[in-house]
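Module 6 notes. Inverse folding takes a fixed backbone as the condition and produces residue identities as the prediction. Think of it as a translation problem where the source language is geometry and the target language is the twenty amino acids. Below is one complete input and output pair. Work through it position by position during the lab.
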């Protein structure tokens, strides 16, 4: 068998992973819209297709060797989140500001703040790997802020009330 690293197949697997991942998220957003419009059957179809796209994405990621040990996966997650809040989003925020794109600016700014939280949570998990502490995580439906334990006040990122948080199992 030939080397995957640097091959066209490696590039294709990464491209397929990105495409399937984006399709999953898009179809879930489409399902929410269909639900809001009372189109329950169409929403169900979008969710089914989204689940299938996840299966495809995971298969491509495994084939390219993108899933490693939990310790290595945590380090990769920390690196990715750190890149987002130190490089990617600041540039996007600057460009949205200069172009007067307020909706994009809000979206980028909220995500930027939360990516730092994610990096910190991943680092905490890496530091405590193996302890299996019984911590529950809650995510804000408005901005994606992720917290340990039940919310006891408004979201510290977007100020949404505690009812905006959902528990992740």
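Target side of the pair, the amino acids:
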């Amino acid at each position: 068998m030939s080397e995957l690293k640097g091959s066209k197949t490696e590039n294709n697997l990464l491209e397929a992973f990105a495409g399937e991942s984006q399709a999953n998220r898009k179809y879930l957003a489409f399902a929410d819209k269909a639900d809001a419009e009372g189109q329950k059957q169409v929403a169900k179809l979008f969710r089914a297709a989204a689940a299938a796209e996840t299966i495809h994405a995971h298969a491509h990621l495994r084939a390219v060797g993108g899933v490693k040990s939990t310790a290595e996966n945590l380090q990769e997650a920390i690196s990715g989140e750190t890149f987002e809040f130190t490089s990617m989003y600041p540039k996007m925020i600057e460009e949205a500001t200069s172009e007067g794109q307020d909706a994009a600016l809000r979206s980028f700014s909220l995500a930027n703040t939360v990516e730092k939280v994610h990096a910190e949570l991943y680092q905490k998990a890496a530091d405590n790997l193996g302890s299996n502490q019984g911590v529950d995580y809650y995510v804000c439906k408005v901005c994606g802020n992720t917290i340990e334990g039940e919310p006891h006040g408004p979201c510290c990122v977007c100020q949404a009330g505690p009812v905006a948080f959902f528990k992740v199992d």
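Reference fact for the lab report: The mean pLDDT is 97.
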